[in-house]
Amino acid sequence: MKSTHLKQLAALTLSMLGATSLVHATELFPELAANKTIGVQVKIQTFSPTDAAKIKAAGLGFVRFGVWTDSLGDPSYQKQVNDAFATARASGLPVLLTVRSTQALTSAPGNNRDFTSAGEAFAHSVTTLEKEYGPQLVAIEIWNEPDLDTYWPTGNFSTTFAPFMTAMCKTLQANPSATPLIGFGFARPPSDSSASTVALNSIVSAYPKCLSAISYHPYGMTTTQISNAQTFIQQKFHLPGVISEWGVSSLASNGGNAGQASKIGAFVNDMKKLNIPLTSIYEWKDTESGSNDRERNFGMLNADGQPKPAEVTVKSELNPL
After folding, report:
1. Which residue did the predictor score with more confidence, 197 or 2?
2. Do the Cβ atoms of 4 and 12 come closer than 8 Å?
3. Torsional sign, CA 113, 118, 123, 127
4. Rounded to whole angstroms, how far apart are CA atoms 286 and 172?
5. Which range is least confidently modeled, 10-19, 154-163, 301-310?
6. Within a domain: 283
């Protein structure tokens, strides 16, 4: 009897904790229903109304795509962005918008004045995008994998990132956004020994209200490791952690299409149990222009739009009978 009572109490406790987390997720991202916290990344160049309808039918709650601030002056690029938002809006899919520059922010990384100017300019771009698309946005994510040189072309991350982001946060503080702001899409979650933790300590301590959540990409991590990362982020920065990118390629070394489907299905199930406030899977369709076989085969669909087993598995996980 005692054992049964304890099991019932434990189940009730977990249920209450889960309900609390779901309420928190809804409060954090008001555009998302409590059961629609898992979305998928799309490319604006190939995102079609057919894709949007299928994403919606699969039970995915939002789409993630990126906008590069250094390209916004190009009318053809601006049209691609507008068309992507229109496609999402027509299917009732909110957008997680990741914003960064593909160009170095300054030619003199040691000049803090340049970083202040660059941070202010970037903040104005974020504000402009929020004003244009705010009603559709789940959140605006600042940057993507700045802890990798490929995506932080401005120089040494450990010395250049915090000055830029501090200037950005200071500028945004004067005109707070109604859209949640998350950052910074780290390639690995912050940890005790990481440069991202040092940078976040500086940014968050100076502007604790700048971010609503800290985003990262837990490729190759176990569920336990993700859970530990969530705990670290909450305890260290007093902010929730969110997953803005995770995926697995359908290479033969991963078990091909079947292996990909199995791994994605397990991931979706685990993230629901952990009650992560927001999770974005990479990606909806294969990318033919990827630099290698691995990068070309992360999609739940082939590049021509034919579904892989992963799409069926995700639909089953998110639309239980």
Report:
1. 197
2. no
3. positive
4. 36
5. 10-19
6. yes
Rounded-to-integer distance, Cα 132 and Cα 130, Å: 5
The residue behind tokens 């199930």 is 269
- What would the 3-class secondary structure string for 58-74 be? CCCCCEEEEEEHHHCCC
Residue 2 lies in a domain: no
Range of the domain at 291: 30-318
Please check whether residue 302 lies inside any domain of the structure: yes
3: in domain = no
Count of domains for the chain: 1
| CA distances (Å), origin 274, targets 48, 92, 108 | 32, 26, 43
Tokens encoding 162: 């915090």
pTM, 2 dp = 0.91
How many other C-beta atoms are found inside a 10 Å radius of the C-beta of residue 217? 22
Q: Answer for the pair 163, 209: CB distance below 8 angstroms, yes or no.
A: no
Provide the CATH number for the domain around residue 184.
Answer: 3.20.20.80
What size, in residues, is the chain?
A: 321
Amino acid sitting at position 74: D
Distances (CA, A) of 201 to 53, 137, 205, 230, 312: 41, 27, 6, 16, 42
